[in-house]
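Example record used in the benchmark description.
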Amino acid sequence: MGEEERVIPIEIDDHYRMYGKEPWEVSYTTKCTQCGSRIDEWGFCSCGSCGE
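Model output (structure tokens):
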């Protein structure tokens, strides 16, 4: 997606503090067979079943 511009200052960016990366830096692999959402690089999806 290219380099995005930081809108929220890093000092108060809760997402960056929790996950260590910006939302656009997450890489997705496959889709969950249960909910149809994307599964991220850690194996998580929206419903929590991880495609099982």
